[in-house]
# Entry
Amino acid sequence: GSSRVLNGTPLGELLEAWEERQMPTLAGMSKRKAKCICKKWASLRDETGKQIWPQDGTFNFQTIKELRSKVKPSQIPYWYCWAELARSREVKGKMERDTAGNPSLEESKNEARFMAPLLSKPVQG
# Structure
């Protein structure tokens, strides 16, 4: 059916990383629920009525950041998985592009600083 996850999509990549145990998951979290929540998020709209979250997810920091305020408290651990995977992909990409390695490392530290306040922000709702 339409619930199949396509390889090469951000959601497919997230589930693959999940398989390989590269996700900061907590007890009780499941891949099935991650898939279900990702699809649910696709129905969320911003103030102008525009869809916030694509059906198959995204690794765009701005979108992930925007999604944060709409996510239910019980879904935060799943949101965190997206945020972490986006960050690690970004870091990996920069390290591949930059053979010296040093500027990349500096940038990834800045990104970690960028994500930290998002994760510690108190949850409304």
